[in-house]
From TrEMBL, chain A:
Family: Belongs to the transketolase family.
Keyword Transferase (UniProt): yes
Pfam families recorded: Transketolase_N
PANTHER family: TRANSKETOLASE N-TERMINAL SECTION-RELATED
Name this polypeptide is given: Transketolase subunit A
CDD domains xref list: TPP_TK (cd02012)
Organism for this UniProt entry: Sedimentibacter saalensis
Superkingdom field: Bacteria
Keyword tRNA-binding among record annotations: no
Cofactor names: thiamine diphosphate
From TrEMBL, chain B:
UniProt name for this protein: 1-deoxy-D-xylulose-5-phosphate synthase
Family indicated by similarity: Belongs to the transketolase family.
The EC number(s) this enzyme carries: 2.2.1.7
Cofactors named for this entry: thiamine diphosphate
A Pfam family recorded for this sequence: Transketolase_C
Domain spans labelled Transketolase-like pyrimidine-binding: 3-169
Keywords in alphabetical order: Thiamine pyrophosphate, Transferase
Organism (species): bioreactor metagenome
A GO term for molecular function: 1-deoxy-D-xylulose-5-phosphate synthase activity
Alphabetical list of InterPro entries matching this protein: PDH/Transketolase, THDP-binding, Transketo_C/PFOR_II, Transketolase-like_Pyr-bd, Transketolase_BS, Transketolase_C
Amino acid sequence: MKYDDLKLTAQNLRKNILTMIHEAKSGHPGGSLSAVEIVTYLYFKEMNIKDPHDEGRDRFVLSKGHGAPVLYSALMEKGFINKELMGTLRQVNSKLQGHPDMKKLPGVEASTGSLGQGLSIANGMALAFKLDKKENRVFALLGDGEIQEGMIWEAAMLANHYHLDNLTAILDHNGLQIDGKNNDVMTVEPIDEKFEAFGWHVIKADGHDFESLEKAFEERKKVTGKPALIIAETIKGKGCSFMEDKASWHGKAPNYEEFCMAMEEIGGGLNG
Amino acid sequence: MAKATREAYGEALKKLAANNPDVVVLDADLSGSTKTSEFKKVSPERFFNVGIAEQNLIGTAAGMSLAGKIPFASSFAMFAAGRAFEIIRNTVAYPFLNVKIAATHAGLTVGEDGASHQAIEDISLMRSIPNMTVINPADCIEAEQAVLKAAEYVGPVYIRLGRMAVEDVYDSSYQFEIGKGVELKNGSDVTIIATGIMVQKALKASESLKAQGIDARVINIHTIKPIDKEIIIKAAKETRAVVTAEEHSIIGGLGSAVLEVLSDTCPVPVRRIGVMDTFGESGKPEDLMEKYMLTEKNIEESCKEIIKMK
């Protein structure tokens, strides 16, 4: 099948995420699992990145830094960081900080964690590449709760003003944040119209379907002269039935029984 | 010649435009006041206005540094160090990015705009962040060199600049070095440790004290972090009394930094001149300096008082 390799990688990412968070007894499974297909597609299909030190590489900024486990998992599957680190997440002296620390790991392009800042960072990279007439592209993954931060809209304005068509933001639209549904906490919709009003090209996709993601990223390539946002519809906790669409799994680690159940559901069993 | 340190910043940026192709400059709609407009005139393609958005100013600068640029980001000190504090802390200093924050209109001498625009906490804020270098030049000669040295240094730097003209403390032979305090005048009775605009006042106070038979040493601490411990400890040991002077709150600035050094090594009587944990107000800069007790006379009186405590 066309997307079998990507699906297998996504499965591995999910297992890595759960293993890390379970062993750490701490972390953010919900928003890591919802972004699995997006991150898989970026690292294993879309982005030009064979070596984390290559100057010509495309850049990925995880603006929703609490999704660190999905990034670490992708970097492990890429071979940029050692899988043996998996048991060290959130432990003292670990390279796998609770939120990504670019100084500790190759392949982490920016230190993030405090929400709302990643789009500005991505803008800065995209501006610099344009100034130097370089081909590097920049991708930023935003949370849907995160766009409640005012700084996101400062950055949204700038990306349009400077015509950053080498910048693509992807919104992990799982509809939930720590305190509940986005729109119960603070209305974020209509996200598409807001970004369009800010001069962005907006594309909608199913964030768990590789065919849909491929169509979105291909459409993005055809748009010049402006930044683009891919609103990827996702399910928080995707892949573990008891976590799916539950805000309570935003920042909680599964216990041993839950972990076994989740690994079973994802497939391959504990050692798969 | 009396000139504001922000003018020297504009001059330094023009040199960097000519000599360093990696330097880019960002501003948040204050380029005429911060003098980044000087860079824009000669290198418009490397100048980026982000609009009135200081958080994005710093975040964008961080991203540019990650793509190999040396960004100078400017706004008023209130908004750069104040409003964008957390972005500076998390996105610039934590990963040790090569971003230079040149903040103008610091302190009470902003004058007529009043308390909302008078940053008297910025040294304290910036100094408390790990990895950050904090520089507060005394005059234009020092300010220009500080900007050029900051461009050479790899890592985050906060440079504090003023709106009001200051007299030259140095001549053209002066060599600025990050982290190295400068003994401007030797003396054995008391040491005045000053920074920024207060350095010229410290020198005047020492002249006046000399006429009264008091031999005051004057030290300029232009780099508040990392601070030159040696010059401070040596002065404290040799004069046994210290007065600090800064156009900043007495909480967390130069005075606090000097006390931190001395309490660990050589506790001697110290008197701090600064804004007394209060907000400023509108007024002519010189009237405000008078009202908030930041004059050479205040330094002189403090020296006399502290000598009695030896």
